[in-house]
Amino acid sequence: MDRPTLANLRKITQKENEPEPYAKYVIRPISVLFTWGFVRTPITANQVTLLQEIIGIVGAIFLINGNFVIGALVLQLGYILDCSDGEVARWKNQQSEQGKFLDLIGHMIVIPFYYFGLGLGLYLQQGQIITLIMGFLAALFSLKIEKFLVSDNGDLEIGRRGFIKSLFRYPDSMNVITILALTDWIFQTNFLFYCVIIFGIGMTLGRFQQIHQTFKSIKN
Q1: Phi-psi sector, 93: left (phi>0), alpha (psi -120 to 50), beta
Q2: DSSP 8-state class, residue 147
Q3: Handedness of CA 188, 191, 196, 197 (dihedral sign)
């Protein structure tokens, strides 16, 4: 077996054609460093996934407490581990349907939690009920129950659909929150307030559009 050098890890565990520019140029160069450490321990890929989910929940709790910058950065750490768990799985040959399912469940917990955490945190900080409502709607309609339907090739992922729609999807929505949290902190703006409203409206309209299209296709 090849030695777990950084060069070998990049060659064996990372995708040749990474579709996400942010993942390719920012996250993957960092995640491989974590992977380099994990593969030298008995830690399994599924354990890395569980760690990623715990960190994601911690990040959402920071958002609830109004620590938006810290919360966003902790979520970014969770995304790094979200990339690292797959790398560990490929290196240790631990890829499995159970691992995919565990990763899916983690996303279905962490993503709604950080939407709601943002809305609740803004409500507790500013006292405007609209942020709580919109955070709840964004969390509710970010749930993708259809991901339980596995395609013929066993892939649990759903393809991206354009730049604007991608901003409402993980990890881009997390990146938007991170950028705006830093902007609000540095320049004393209030972009996160408008951000959670846009997420709430966008997620709601997008989900109802999807429901309409689904019923239309069934009827036809």
Answers
A1: left
A2: G
A3: positive
Residue 87 to residue 24: CA distance in whole angstroms: 13
Joined tokens for residue 42: 């008995």
Tell me how far apart the alpha carbons of residues 149 and 206 are, in angstroms, rounded to a whole number: 19
Dump pLDDT digits (tens) for 176-187. Answer: 999 999 999 999
User: Please, what are the domains in the chain?
Assistant: 6-219 (1.20.120.1760)
Task: Tell me 158's DSSP state.
Answer: -
Residue 74 near residue 59, CB atoms below 8 Å? yes
pLDDT in tens, 43-88: 999 999 999 999 999 999 999 999 999 999 999 999 999 999 999 9
List of residues 6+ apart from 60 with CB closer than 8 A:
71, 75, 110, 113, 114, 116, 117
